[in-house]
Specification:
140 residues, alpha/beta, 26% helix
Length: 140
């Protein structure tokens, strides 16, 4: 999937992305500083039905949000691995346990900090800056 969107149209992009990505339990978001990973995840959570304010878990490492899906309460674990220095540190922080959960979703920012932990069946996403207001999202 490839999407090019303006920040003013991010909700439409999030809706299109979710239609494609909802079957993936782990979604790993890569992109440089300021690329808009947290901004896109926030728009995605809003589309899914998260009522709370979604913010970067840079210092907490994990933020959890709940929403209702087909009559069931689901959890989104939003993680930010930017501050992690190694796979071992990620495991000690509980990231491996999050990735092994069978229900809910795990959204990961900066998965390249511990790529060995990312499951093979994860959806990998890269967000690139085109200009001040435009982003390109690619999945692989």
């Amino acid at each position: 999937m490839q999407l090019t969107y303006n920040l003013s149209g991010i909700q439409d992009a999030a809706a299109s992305f979710w239609a494609y990505a909802r079957s993936f339990r782990v979604i790993a978001f890569s992109g440089g500083l300021g690329a808009g990973k947290t901004t896109f995840i926030s728009a995605l959570c809003k589309h899914i039905g998260i009522q709370e304010k979604v913010s970067s878990p840079t210092f907490a490492l994990i933020n959890e949000y709940t929403f209702k899906e087909q009559g069931h309460i689901r959890v989104i674990s939003h993680t930010d691995w930017y501050r992690l220095k190694s796979e071992e540190e990620a495991v000690q922080a509980g990231m491996e346990d999050l990735l092994m959960q069978k229900s809910g979703y795990c959204f990961i920012e900066w998965p390249e900090r511990a790529p060995e932990l990312i499951p093979e069946n994860a959806l990998n996403v890269t967000i690139n800056v085109i200009d001040e207001n435009t982003r390109e999202l690619q999945t692989f």
